[in-house]
Design a protein that fits this description.
It contains ten helices and no strands. The chain has 182 residues and is mainly alpha-helical. The two termini are 43 Å apart. The relative contact order is 0.04.
Length: 182
């Protein structure tokens, strides 16, 4: 929705790695277990007899006819299971030697990549309070959002408690001298 809104508003779309992770996380949370099972079943990968409790196993559902036709056309002598499991013993990543690790750590290119990435600063309690007020105004100004007042109140309490905890914390030496120089 964020990307579509940016496109519709003729705004430049900037997605950093953190945004990409958040988008992937949000998309993955919407995928249901049944969707994955159905995709594999539809593709013919369901080979075990252990099925869902609701779906009885029917050996005629296996795609043996299709597999037989395929093996005849491409002239291979493999079972479906052995074909699917052909790469199960392969390494999925290489092993690093100590020299590889050291050179990777000392590599200047990696440091330049980190410098190029935008570092997001943590949100202060004041910024969180202002954002919360903005959210409250938005919710109050739109119909059908009454259920959001309770979670908003919980969030408000958390922010207020966090502000109280920060006021009670003892300053570190660095913080003390930083405040004294101001």
């Amino acid at each position: 929705k964020k990307i579509i809104s940016a496109i519709n508003g003729n705004n430049q779309i900037i997605i950093n790695i953190l945004d990409a992770i958040r988008l992937c996380d949000k998309a993955w949370r919407h995928v249901k277990k049944g969707t994955i099972v159905n995709c594999f079943t539809k593709s013919g990968f369901k080979t075990s007899i252990e099925n869902d409790e609701n779906t009885p196993y029917d050996p005629s559902d296996d795609n043996n006819d299709e597999w037989d036709q395929l093996t005849e056309k491409i002239n291979i002598d493999e079972t479906f299971t052995s074909y699917v499991n052909v790469d199960e013993n392969l390494d999925i990543c290489g092993e690093w030697t100590e020299n590889d690790i050291i050179s990777d750590i000392l590599d200047e290119d990696n440091q330049e990549e980190f410098e190029d990435q935008q570092v997001q600063s943590t949100i202060t309690n004041k910024e969180a309070t202002l954002a919360l007020k903005t959210l409250r105004k938005y919710i109050e100004g739109n119909e059908g959002m009454e259920d959001l007042f309770k979670p908003l109140g919980i969030l408000e309490n958390i922010i207020e408690n966090n502000i109280g905890l920060i006021k009670q914390k003892q300053l570190t030496l660095h913080q003390f001298f930083k405040n004294e120089n101001m």
